[in-house]
Structure formats: C-alpha cells, structure tokens
Design a protein that fits this description.
Blueprint lengths: L6 E6 L4 E6 L2 H7 L5 H6 L2 H4 L6 E6 L9
C-alpha cells in the first residue's frame, strides 16, 4: 500500500512560520512528474511564500495537529 501525499507541513526556520498546505488534485498529479519531491516543492515556493532551502518539511496522507501553547 502506498501513501498518497495530500498534505505538506513546512517549518520555515527563517521566519519562524509553520505552513500547512493541502494539495489540490492537480498539484498531486503534478508532483508525480518529479523524481525528487523537493523539486516539486520548489514550484510552490512563490505561491506559498517560502524557500525550500530555509525549511524542514514533511509530506503526509493525513494531517493531525497538537498544540501546547
């Protein structure tokens, strides 16, 4: 069973920002065209205001959150 990437969680350590992206069906299809997922992520930088080189990220099928603030 393969995991489908539906969400991307990004920690931008230059701006101390957590960015959560729910990929559209079109973005999911587009991501399959890239051998390296990080290359696909770089196509989203301008739209979501981040730079891959300044971030840690994870891709996941479902997104769960916990906050202890």
């Amino acid at each position: 069973m393969t995991m489908e990437t539906n969400y991307i969680a990004i920690l931008d350590f230059c701006t101390a920002t957590v960015i959560k992206i729910r990929l559209t069906a079109e973005q999911i299809e587009e991501s399959y065209k890239y051998a390296d997922f990080e290359d696909f992520l770089s196509t989203l930088e301008e739209q979501y205001h981040f730079q891959v080189k300044n971030c840690c990220w994870m891709a996941c099928e479902t997104l769960n959150e916990e906050s202890y603030l």
